[in-house]
Design goal:
With 464 residues, the chain is α+β, with helices and mostly antiparallel strands. It is built from 16 helices and 23 strands. The structure holds heme C (7 copies).
């Protein structure tokens, strides 16, 4: 009797964990990763033909016992009967945008037609903003995946990531042109994947994306700042090699300035339209008209046809930042249509959240948390840019951030002032905006799952 209860209980907990895990993955992915075949039950007919597949096995690999089987959504999986590991890759689909000038309806027009020029076009006349800006996390949040921009180590042994399956490990390499490759070494099988885009300025880590024709996928191995090594990408299962996770528009919408999405697709884009980094025009609007005007009228000293966010209402200012810092919700419009001055609620059905760990695409949900604070509720003008200078890299400078608190508070107003003394002015942050783990960004290693810590924007007295 008691044993039965125990078994039922274990099953319930098991199911709950599976549910939570799938929900968590869903937040990251919003695409399915279920229905993986159980390799012990593969029928002979499931073995793919080896003839003209671009991901064919060599004769030696077949002799070694490897097989190709169908995965989800037309993907292919490399499996071995004596191994629990697998390598999953997308079957390349023919590009429909071989002709980059092909007209696209709907949201689809090349970046130039949308009026985007890229940050370099602003440098000529706004040298100071540009110089400072290229140091920021926004600028660096997506970069070409060349050796210079890769944060992980290529030193022998450190360039290797082992897994809990002895037959499977990864090797990170560069070639003479500085291209970055991840090699999957699965028994005697070795497959090389070349990265195209490095995502993440690297405060927490960096993830790598690659193109297969005009479809964009995420790579298995990411880099993690703490403890400074190669790790399984968030949500990936240790002991597998997954090169078929689609990079959906939501992901690039937060991490690039522009990438022309091909309507109806999950992860296909007009490659040539890409403007990497969250750069000038994401916060100021497309710059073509502005640049054309000022090039023709060098004597006009008043900016034309461009948005200065400080002219917007406070809600519009916060919404501008919140389009990428709000957590999660249901999309109401095609990607990349939001322009500075627009209202967030017209683009997203924003979920109401309370906990810092809730809802985020690992973004820690800054706006919703800030709104809970007395600082926000009892002052009329608190926005993201009250504390964050958009063109400067200030991360880590706690003393500087504390001066922003002191714009509204006097240090002696703090209940801890007597105890800490005048030096309290150097750090209002540690006590009132504590770091808290982001449960939406778990990185799995062979032995542990880690959650990076982010600032909680609910400014408060802890324990109150
Ligand atoms: C040919 C010169 C030129 C180029 C190129 C240029 N700007 Fe400007 N911009 C100006 C001038 C002149 C002003 C008005 C003086 C000022 O505010 O610096 C201005 C003002 C601005 C303002 C403030 C507007 C206001 O109403 O206060 C913003 C924002 C701006 N530019 C953004 C950009 C962005 C983004 C780019 C690149 C896409 C860009 N500019 C490229 C000349 C230029
Ligand atoms: C298009 C999406 C997007 C918009 C719009 C956006 N951000 Fe970000 N922001 C990001 C991403 C992505 C990161 C993470 C960059 C990284 O570390 O790779 C980030 C990082 C940050 C950081 C942390 C890095 C640092 O420098 O300390 C701050 C602060 C920040 N954003 C504030 C803002 C503010 C303020 C605004 C509005 C003026 C804004 N963001 C608008 C996407 C965006
Ligand atoms: C809703 C906007 C949003 C979406 C969607 C999103 N991110 Fe992010 N991402 C952020 C923000 C904001 C941060 C910065 C976290 C912070 O510092 O608060 C970030 C951080 C990161 C980092 C770490 C950056 C660093 O400096 O260490 C990586 C890597 C990353 N994101 C990759 C991805 C990938 C891959 C996807 C798609 C599967 C994705 N993100 C989807 C907003 C987003
Ligand atoms: C994350 C959003 C964001 C990005 C990216 C961004 N800006 Fe701004 N910019 C702002 C905000 C907000 C203001 C108004 C408040 C302020 O100046 O701090 C502003 C103000 C300006 C102004 C008005 C004068 C001034 O300095 O206040 C200019 C010019 C400008 N930005 C140019 C640029 C250029 C050029 C780039 C790219 C190299 C760029 N911005 C990138 C948000 C951004
Ligand atoms: C735009 C002005 C403004 C800024 C900037 C600001 N606050 Fe506040 N803050 C307020 C107001 C108004 C209140 C409510 C009245 C009070 O308690 O002083 C408040 C309340 C607080 C409280 C009491 C909270 C509670 O729940 O009782 C703390 C703690 C606090 N602020 C800390 C900070 C810290 C730390 C910073 C910087 C990171 C900061 N504030 C930035 C305006 C501001
Ligand atoms: C009262 C000041 C204040 C306001 C307002 C504020 N922030 Fe922050 N924010 C901070 C401080 C302080 C940090 C920690 C900086 C550091 O560790 O270097 C921070 C960190 C961040 C980070 C870096 C990731 C992390 O959590 O460690 C992001 C992203 C961010 N803020 C976005 C925003 C956005 C978006 C808004 C508007 C909704 C906003 N912030 C409003 C003070 C503020
Ligand atoms: C060592 C931790 C610590 C530091 C550092 C700190 N605070 Fe506080 N703060 C507290 C505590 C604890 C309280 C509550 C004290 C009480 O209730 O008696 C508090 C209370 C406050 C309050 C609310 C006061 C009230 O009576 O409503 C404000 C505002 C505040 N702090 C602002 C700041 C500012 C601004 C700084 C930086 C100059 C700062 N704090 C630095 C711990 C700290």
């Amino acid at each position: 009797m008691q044993k039965n209860i125990l078994i039922t209980l274990t099953m319930c907990i098991g199911l709950a964990l599976v549910f939570l895990a799938s929900r968590r993955l869903g937040v990251w992915l919003q695409s399915s990763d279920k229905n993986r075949p159980d390799q012990t039950q593969l029928s002979a007919t499931q073995q793919a033909t080896l003839s003209d597949s671009p991901i064919a096995l060599s004769e030696q690999e077949v002799a070694d016992g490897f097989r190709l089987v169908d995965g989800d959504q037309g993907n292919k999986m490399f499996v071995h009967p004596q191994s629990r590991s697998w390598l999953e890759v997308p079957l390349p689909i023919a590009s429909t945008t071989g002709d980059a000038d092909a007209p696209l309806e709907q949201a689809g027009k090349p970046a130039a037609a949308m009026g985007y020029l890229g940050p370099q076009a602003c440098a000529e006349c706004h040298r100071n903003q540009h110089l400072a800006f290229v140091e920021t996390a926004h600028y660096r949040t997506s970069l070409p995946a060349n050796e210079e921009n890769i944060l992980g180590s290529f030193e022998p042994t450190q360039n290797q990531m082992n897994t809990n399956q002895s037959q499977l490990h990864f090797e990170m390499k560069t070639d003479e042109q500085g291209h970055f490759f991840q090699d999957v070494v699965f028994g005697n099988l070795r497959r090389s994947f070349r990265a195209d885009i490095a995502t993440g300025a690297g405060f927490i880590g960096q993830t790598y994306l690659y193109w297969s024709n005009d479809a964009l996928y995420q790579m298995h191995v990411s880099y993690f700042r703490e403890p400074d090594r190669w790790v399984n990408s968030p949500g990936y299962v240790d002991g597998t090699a997954w090169y078929a996770r689609k990079v959906i528009p939501k992901c690039v919408e937060c991490h690039t300035t522009y990438m022309e999405w091909i309507p109806g697709s999950d992860n296909r884009y007009q490659k040539s339209s890409t403007i990497l980094g969250v750069t000038c025009e994401r916060c100021h609007g497309p710059g073509k008209e502005h640049v054309d005007f000022h090039q023709r009228n060098p004597n006009v000293k008043q900016g034309r046809s461009i948005v200065n966010p400080s002219d917007l209402s406070l809600t519009q200012q916060n919404d501008l930042c919140a389009q990428c810092h709000f957590g999660s919700g249901e999309r109401l419009q095609p990607p990349f249509l939001f322009r500075p001055g627009d209202r967030l609620e017209d683009y997203w059905n924003v979920e109401e959240l309370s906990g810092p760990e809730e809802g985020g695409v690992h973004s820690s949900n800054q706006l919703a948390r800030l709104k809970l604070s007395e600082c926000f509720q009892q002052s009329s003008d608190l926005t993201c840019i009250s504390c964050h200078a958009p063109h400067h890299q200030e991360r880590g400078d706690i003393k500087l951030f504390s001066t922003r608190c002191i714009k509204c508070h006097e240090p002696p107003d703090c209940g801890a002032f007597e105890q800490v003394g005048q030096s309290i002015s150097d750090d209002c942050i540690s006590c009132h905006m504590p770091l808290s783990a982001d449960n939406h960004l778990p990185f799995e290693s062979a032995t542990t799952v880690q959650f990076p810590k982010l600032r909680d924007h609910y400014i408060r007295i802890e324990g109150k």
